[in-house]
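In this section we walk through a basic example: taking a raw amino acid sequence and producing a predicted 3D structure, encoded as discrete structure tokens. The instruction is simple. Fold the sequence below.
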Amino acid sequence: MRITVTTALVHLDRTSTTCTHPTPGTKPCPGTTGYRASCSACSWRRAGRSQAALADLAATHLATHLTAAVPT
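The resulting token sequence is shown next.
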């Protein structure tokens, strides 16, 4: 099984729904607050203002799913 962390743009609304509008921020999109990252293998989720802010967190989290050391 391949484990991935996906990042999605989220709206300003109370529940931070995922933005699927073609052009975020223009009508009828209510605007966006940042990004949410989630893991495909567990319940891990994090929010951040940019994708770059979440990249290191995602890499660190994915490393926790490794079951064996990588040969060098």
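Looking at the output, two observations stand out. The mean pLDDT is 86. DSSP finds one helix and three strands in the chain. In the next section we compare this with other chains.
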